[in-house]
UniProtKB/TrEMBL annotation:
Cellular component terms (Gene Ontology): mitochondrial inner membrane; respiratory chain complex III
Subcellular location: Mitochondrion inner membrane
A biological process term (GO) from this entry: mitochondrial electron transport, ubiquinol to cytochrome c
UniProt xrefs under PANTHER family: CYTOCHROME B-C1 COMPLEX SUBUNIT 9 (PTHR12980:SF0), UBIQUINOL-CYTOCHROME C REDUCTASE COMPLEX, SUBUNIT X (PTHR12980)
Record has Transport as a keyword: yes
Transmembrane segments: 14-34
InterPro entries associated with the record: QCR9 (IPR008027), QCR9_sf (IPR036656)
Keyword terms, alphabetized: Electron transport, Membrane, Mitochondrion, Mitochondrion inner membrane, Respiratory chain, Transmembrane, Transmembrane helix, Transport
Main subcellular location of this protein, as a coarse class: mitochondrion
SUPFAM superfamilies: Subunit X (non-heme 7 kDa protein) of cytochrome bc1 complex (Ubiquinol-cytochrome c reductase) (SSF81514)
Protein name in the entry: Complex III subunit 9
Pfam family, one: UCR_UQCRX_QCR9
Family classification: Belongs to the UQCR10/QCR9 family.
C-alpha cells in the first residue's frame, strides 16, 4: 500500500516539495475559513457586519 503512494508522491525531491507546499496551502486555507466561521459564531451580533443596518438607517 505504501509503495504506490511513495512512488507517486515522494520518490523525487521536487515531487515531495510540491506535495508539501500544496498540502500546507490547502491546510492553511481550510483552517482560515474554519476559524473565521468559529469567530463569527462566537461574536454573532457584535460585529459591524451584524449591526451595520441599525446605524446606516439612522444616518439616512
Amino acid at each position: 500500500m505504501a509503495s504506490p503512494l511513495y512512488n507517486a508522491l515522494f520518490r523525487r525531491n521536487f515531487q515531495m516539495l510540491g506535495v508539501v507546499f500544496v498540502s500546507a496551502f490547502a491546510f492553511e486555507m481550510t483552517y482560515d475559513v474554519g476559524m473565521n466561521k468559529v469567530w463569527d459564531n462566537i461574536n454573532k451580533g457584535r460585529q459591524w457586519k451584524d449591526i451595520r443596518q441599525k446605524y446606516a438607517e439612522a444616518e439616512e
